[in-house]
Design a protein that fits this description.
Mean pLDDT: 78
CATH class of the largest domain: Alpha Beta
Number of strands: 7
Strand order of the largest sheet: 4-3-2-5-6
Strand content: 15-25%
Structural class: alpha/beta
Largest sheet: 5 strands, mixed
CATH architecture of the largest domain: 2-Layer Sandwich
Order of helices and strands: HHEEEEHEHEE
Length: 135
C-alpha cells in the first residue's frame, strides 16, 4: 500500500512545464520583429522601367514617386510639383539619399522638373529607380 501512494504522488511531478518554452518562443518572436528590415514603399503603384545596370541603394531615406497621370508623391503623401524641393530637403539628412520612382509612362519633363527642384533645394544625392533587366 505504501508503494502505491509513492507512485501516485510521483505522477504530479511528471507533468511538463511549458512556461520556459513559451518564454523562448516569445523572445524569438521579438528578436525577429526587431531585426526585420522593412521595405519602404512610395505609396502609389509604379511600373518602373527596366535597366541592365540597376543597382540597389541601401542609403535611401526618401522616395519620390511620379505617376503616369503626372502626380508627385513623397513618402506616400501627394505633393505639389513646386513644393517637392523644400518638402524633401527637410526630410533628408547629410548622409541620406533620394530615389525617384518614375512610372515608365510618366512624362520625362516632369521627371526633369522634379530633379531640378530637388537640386535647387540642396539635395545632391538623387537617383532614378529602375527594375533590373532579367536578360
Amino acid at each position: 500500500m505504501r508503494r502505491r501512494r509513492s507512485l501516485e504522488s510521483g505522477d504530479d511531478s511528471s507533468e511538463v512545464n511549458l512556461t520556459p518554452m513559451l518564454d523562448v518562443v516569445f523572445i524569438m518572436l521579438i528578436f525577429f520583429i526587431v531585426t526585420t528590415s522593412f521595405v519602404k514603399e512610395s505609396g502609389v503603384e509604379i511600373e518602373r522601367p527596366e535597366a541592365s545596370a540597376a543597382t540597389p541603394r541601401p542609403d535611401t531615406q526618401v522616395l519620390v514617386a511620379l505617376t503616369s497621370e503626372g502626380a508627385v508623391w513623397v513618402d506616400g503623401d501627394p505633393v505639389d510639383t513646386h513644393r517637392v524641393g523644400p518638402e524633401v530637403a527637410g526630410m533628408v539628412s547629410d548622409d541620406g539619399g533620394v530615389v525617384i520612382q518614375a512610372d515608365r509612362r510618366a512624362d520625362t519633363g516632369l521627371l526633369i522638373k522634379v530633379m531640378d527642384r530637388l537640386k535647387q533645394a540642396g539635395v545632391d544625392d538623387v537617383a532614378v529607380a529602375a527594375r533590373r533587366d532579367a536578360s
